[in-house]
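Posted in: Structural Biology > Protein-Ligand Complexes

Title: Requesting predicted complex, nickel (II) ion in pocket

I'd be grateful if someone could produce the 3D structure tokens for the following input. Sequence and ligand are given below.
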Amino acid sequence: MKKIVIDPITRIEGHLRAEVEVDENGVVQDAFVSGQLFRGIEIILKDRDPRDAGLLAGRICGVCTNSHFRAAISSVEDAYSLELPKNAEIIRDLMAMALFIQDHVVHFYHLHSLDFVDITSALSADTKLTSKEAHKYHKKPFRNSHSHYEATIEKLSKYVKAGKLGPFSNGYWGHKDYKLTPEQNLIMISHYLEALKFQTNISKAVAIFGGKTPHPQSIVVGGVSSVADMLNPQRLNDYLFIIKEAKDFIERAYLPDAKLLALAYRDEIKAGVGRANGNFLSVGGYEFEGERKLFCSGVVYNHDFENIQEFDESKITEEIDRAWYENEAKDNEVCYTDLNEDGSLKTAKNDDKYSWIKAPRYDGKTMETGPLARVLISYKKDNTLIKSFVDEFLKDTDLELMDLSTSVGRNAARAIETSYICEYIFKLVSRLIQNIKYYDTDTWVKFDFDSLDKEAKGRAFFEVPRGTLSHFVNIKDARIENFSVIAPTTWNATPKNFDGLRGAYEEALVGLKIQDTAKPLEVLRVLHSFDPCLACAVHIIDTKGKELSHYKIRII
Ligand code: NI
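-- Reply #1 --
Done. Output follows.
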């Protein structure tokens, strides 16, 4: 048995380590996925004014800022049973949806595509053939001119000639498992570069109602403060214009590229590469029409979509058997155990603690959460908005629904979700305009903080780009007594417990065949397909955690 250690796994929001044990045939037998950094936001939140929870919790992550900002404030509103005006919910949703689009596009191109795209191969592409190739995936491909592809090659060549590959410098270029043709590589890399501009624009959509992004400022306990923006037709128009532009890129570049990958990596999909244990969780949400929601909620075990269970929050537990916290006192007392007595890093994880990520369980089971879970559950619950997008994708790629439960399929689910989110946004905006037209301009519910209950408990559940996010707050003497967060990556990257159950990341790695153990590209592909956000996943830093700096130096 050979052990491969990959650290760091992620391109940003990093600090994820994977240790995989492979047999003589290069097949993964067991995996240990570890969150390598901890955060201290929950401790910082203690004894604070609950009205400040959002601004502090938003700092949990530099990417998912808006998700934590909103969830923290919603948990406080839940504690005080505050009913929000419709407009406030819509504005919060408009910010959330723009973030979904930004996150998914950035993930696909900038955080994950280079696991599939070999840029060195793109340099030898025939630009006329490239243009022809792009037509296989869309009638009017994005920026599909011969001259544009020539210019892209020239730009890449300059990087290569200068010996400065920048963001492209750490790839396993030339690896046998890169399957795209030079022309397909060129299409993808052209869109990689275009997506850099895209992400700047879509961020502005979040900022229109958020004041700024990352770390928007406009959500307050009881509503939103972006009143003038909501009432200004120019601002609404600016937002819509950005979404229309985004929709164009998603339809003509992102979705076709997801199809291109699904077709090129068909063998991997059919072999189930990257499939986890088939347990899926979605809390649903975002008002659509009447009682219907954008995402359906539900719980699925072992890919049994004919028996989707109702989500029941009381079934959620969080364990610390194998995470670096004390077992006895469940008050987040740090218990770091990853060094041997001589100070070297432990490599055998068999029955020891090995992650800063705690172990959330639903009814005792590990769950996968994220776009794949949402798409599958919503599809099977007959969500009409989503269904047509999924059916079209499966038809164009000659795949079945079950095929989506793979690494490449996970990316497809994300692209499909991004497409229907664009459609949903137009519905949201028209609902907002309708409210304003009928003189409903409320954005905030008045409340007298001093007369609210001094002791209260609240929680908020949201589907956010990477999956299910929950915030829990306990308020005592009008101060935060305790604050707790379970982020999407906490679910997916969970360590084992003493029951030995693997989480989604670990389960997806087991059985994976690695061609070249010195270049474990396959491992990166599987883990990146979940869109890890480790800053979100890890938990508490304690002032006693003096080992942190020592540890980081050793890892580097
Ligand atoms: Ni995050």
